[in-house]
Amino acid sequence: MSAIVVDTAARRLSAFGVHVPCELGRSGPIAAADKREGDGATPVGRWPIRAALLRPDRITPPIGWRLAWRWLRPADGWSDDAADPAYNRPVRHPHAFSAERLWREDGLYDAIVVLGHNDSPPSPAAGSAIFLHCADPGRSTEGCVAIGRDTLVALLGRLGPGDEIEIL
Lowest CB count within 10 Å: 28, 43, 54, 167, which one? Predict the structure, then answer.
């Protein structure tokens, strides 16, 4: 089991001997118990790495990849509506409740690592769609952790079942 460590004070992600700058939520780090939908905060804690989502026209999965993954599709979304029975779960658009679109033109979601925050089971309004994804340097996230695209793709090839991310 490997851990990716995110030092929120230094805004640095460390994994497999590599240390890179990272972006966090616009509101900074927050205790997981205090995390709320839409607050823009990154939840502190240790989260299992569930799977990866890849945009097929922009990313090629590494050979020998051990991490569970699937291709993104244009209709893919992630429910962020606390009233939705599918809250903090993947959904397809059109969707009857509010849901973030995962197929984006800005490149931020070309590769997404789904983190196990508030998912077992999800607690309504306690935060959804907490991912590790591609960064736009200098631009905060809505609560996720983001790093450079090339670094993220290289990291994906080293991740596997049982790996975690620890946000300090």
Answer: 28
